[in-house]
Design a protein that fits this description.
There is one protein chain. With about 90 residues, this protein is mostly loops. The protein has helices at about 5-10, 50-60; strands at about 20-25, 30-35, 45. The protein is built from two helices and three strands, in the order αβββα. The longest helix is centred in the middle third of the chain and has 9 residues, at about 50-60. It starts with 5 loop residues before the first helix and ends in a 29-residue tail after the last helix. This is HNH endonuclease.
C-alpha cells in the first residue's frame, strides 16, 4: 500500500483505461503510471518527500572518473613539495 494525497488518490483507477495506475517497486516505492493518452506510460516516482532518491544517482557513480583529478600531480595548484636541499 502506498500513500497519496486525496486529489492524486482519485486519479488512480485500475478499471479505467484513461486513469492513472500505481505499482509498488521491489524497493517499496510507489510508481505512478500515466494513462496511454496522456504520456508514453513510463512509470515515475514522486520524490518530493524522499530527497535521498534524487541524490542516489550522484553517489552511485563509481565507474566515472573524478573530473577534478588530473593525471600528473605536478600540474596541480601548488605542485609537488620543494626539494629538501633548495628553494622552490
Amino acid at each position: 500500500m502506498g500513500l497519496a494525497c486525496p486529489p492524486h488518490n482519485r486519479l488512480v483507477d485500475t478499471d479505467n483505461p484513461t486513469a492513472w495506475t500505481t505499482h509498488m517497486t521491489d524497493k517499496h516505492h510507489v510508481e505512478w503510471i500515466p494513462p496511454d493518452g496522456l504520456d508514453n506510460g513510463q512509470p515515475r516516482i514522486n520524490t518530493i518527500h524522499q530527497p535521498e532518491l534524487l541524490l542516489a544517482d550522484l553517489t552511485d557513480r563509481d565507474d566515472e572518473p573524478d573530473s577534478t583529478q588530473t593525471e600528473d600531480p605536478r600540474t596541480e595548484p601548488g605542485g609537488p613539495a620543494p626539494p629538501t636541499n633548495g628553494a622552490a
